[in-house]
Amino acid sequence: MAILTITDGPGAGQQYEIEAGKITVGRVEGCDIILNHESISRQHATLTLVPGAWKLEDLGSQNGVFVNEQKVTGCLLKGPCDILFGSIHVHFEPGPEIASQQEAAFPKGKASPKQGGIDPEDVKNIGKLTGNIISEFGRVIVGQKQVAGELLIAIAAGGHCLMIGLPGLAKTLMVSTLAQILKLQFKRVQFTPDLMPSDIIGTDILDVDDQGKRSFRFIKGPVFTNMLLADEINRTPPKTQAALLEAMQEKQVTASNQLFKLPPPFFVLATQNPLEQEGTYPLPEAQLDRFMFNILVDYPEADEEEQIVMATTTRQEVDLNTVLTAEDLVRIQGIVRDLPVSPHVVKYATRLVRMTRPKSEESPDFIKLHIHCGAGPRAAQCLILGAKARAVLQGRVNVSCADVKALALPVLRHRLFTNFTADSEGITTDDIVKKLLAAVPEPSAKDY
What we know:
The structure is a single chain. The strands form six sheets. The chain has a six-stranded antiparallel β-sheet, with no helix packed on it. Strands 4-3-5-6-9 form a five-stranded mixed β-sheet, with no helix packed on it. A five-stranded parallel β-sheet has the order 13-16-19-12-20. By secondary structure, the chain is α+β, with helices and mostly antiparallel strands. It has helices spanning 96-105, 120-140, 145-157, 171-181, 198-201, 238-241, 245-250, 285-288, 302-312, 326-338, 343-354, 365-370, 377-393, 401-406, 408-412, 420-424, 429-439, and strands at 2-8, 15-18, 22-26, 33-34, 43-50, 53-58, 65-67, 70-72, 74-77, 81-85, 88-93, 161-165, 186-190, 202-208, 214-220, 227-231, 252-255, 258-261, 267-272, 293-297, 371-373, 417-418.
């Protein structure tokens, strides 16, 4: 007999005992478990006992079903887990009969095939898939391999990217192409001065059911996707820019006093034009810091530009192949998080970040002379996560200081703020980061 316990929301603490059969969860009479809340659909989901597990299925509900913070349409529940129906949190215990079946399948002393640490062969296979992704990407985008690599690293690490480049450099096409190759749901929002937060998050509408009862229903906005392109993000006021803060940090949205989880994986890829700054709204430091990478998109080489012109002035259409899926990306993100990293690499990343702060005694003189404010701890976190993701995407299980160095520019360039002295001398944050990489040595044996 399984037990379903409401842990948060209306009826918190109430328990339901579930026996064999098919159980319907919803908010109308006739459902076996009635959750009376506006976030619950009339028939929200079903629980069915199958051999070795309970099968959970979403019945096309408006606000979805999440198991351990991951959105599902159908899955098998073989152990205790937390389920989110709409905005009602419940804890599910599958019951002793399922546990006994699991024990028979995996006796004590014999581990489940999915248990254990990182499998090097699995990581090697990911490295091969990375080559396939770059190859497919190159069928549409000529050149820009470094940009593609940095985008993939951020996606594998679960981070967001700010892409800065002149108009016509295919920033939007790069993002949509990646979404196709990775089979991700993709939505684009053109940021304009009159854009409102509800245009991104969603809004409430008055809904009338079959019995004439009126209630407000939340209509989800474009933020409920896997990959959100915020095009020209600096052209909308701070009030609308701030609508993305919770989504980027917490992977959730709060609207009408309700909490809505975003479907995993979730990424914000924002673009920005370095020209025409009149009438724009620069991103505040708090929002800049939420972007893992700041990627500069530069002009193509001469031969690449010729290929671009040849390819884009004909009727040729490219049918892209899917290399990964959203579920694969979630699994890769888990591998990146689980990949161990040595204290040597962590010490180097944190030392690099601490050296960017002009008030630190150990900072070089050029930092104290040209930097007004340095990077915070999130920069070191992004360096390590990015280094781990870079290693996994290259099929390696060892993370080195070279991985940290390779990502120092995209991680630090938007987290350092130059003063008047640097600006008057034409010194950019890229110049300072390159100088910092040359000045800061890797930790030696005496540092341990």
